[in-house]
Amino acid sequence: MYYDFHLHTSFSSDSNAPMERMILQGISLGLPGICFTEHMDLDFPPGNFSFLVNLPAYKKTCLELKEKYAGLISVFFGLEMGLQPHLKKEIPALADSENFDFLIGSTHIVDRLDPYNPEFYENRTQKEAYQRYFEVVLENLRTFSCFDTCGHIDYVVRYGPEKNKGYSYQTYADILDEILKTLIEKGIGLECNSAGFKYGLGHPNPTEDILLRYRELGGELLTLGSDGHAPEHMAYDFLKTGELLKACGFRYYTIFRKRKPEFIKL
Known about the structure:
By secondary structure, this protein is α/β, with parallel strands linked by helices. Helix content is 32%, strand content 18%. It has eight helices and nine strands. It has helices spanning 19-29, 55-68, 90-95, 126-143, 173-186, 195-198, 208-216, 238-247, and strands at 4-7, 33-40, 74-82, 102-106, 149-150, 189-193, 222-225, 252-257, 260-265. Helix 4 (126-143) packs parallel to helix 5 (173-186). It starts with a strand and ends with a strand. The model has no long low-confidence stretch (mean pLDDT 97).
């Protein structure tokens, strides 16, 4: 089985899963290793979630459990940072604040709105909303270089009025190519997030066509994560995802240890 490098526990405000239960599930699944990537979204708009992890408590628990289960599974200490272009000083400082194994940079907020919120789609077509999301992803990538992989670059399609109906790489090819080229130029990885299957999209985030295009452009840094917020979502459809990645031309995926990439054969 594969390493799962995108997981959330009760240290993230949208999960109730105890970290130890997630580790035990990883052992049960036969995973060689897992990386916790709790949410840290600075300046997140007011609402039901704060997405501000208690870093000292999270680190303490993670490292204690890493040692406890050292002979059974490898546990890595990571973070999913919510990117916003105006946080030019705060995000790099956060990235340097702890001795992380792995950092995901994700775009959750566009123009002070989360695409999870129906308000994001008001007064514009779904195509316009998706285009705007990708514009901000690109702006974030041009602004920041302090993370290891870019999380779920088409996150927005999980929540659009018609989800991924009518959505394709070809429709947004110009800006998606700029996103992928920027990742490659900066040496930042692309995440293959299997939660798209869990959300009923029938595809990972990003879709196969985007993954194939990334490979065509020379992209090699590829991380794999379930975005699991509960034990039952860990390594979600990883076997299917692994075969999909092989079909896209990938022979390896990437894990990170102390921010250094390691290539694992698919």
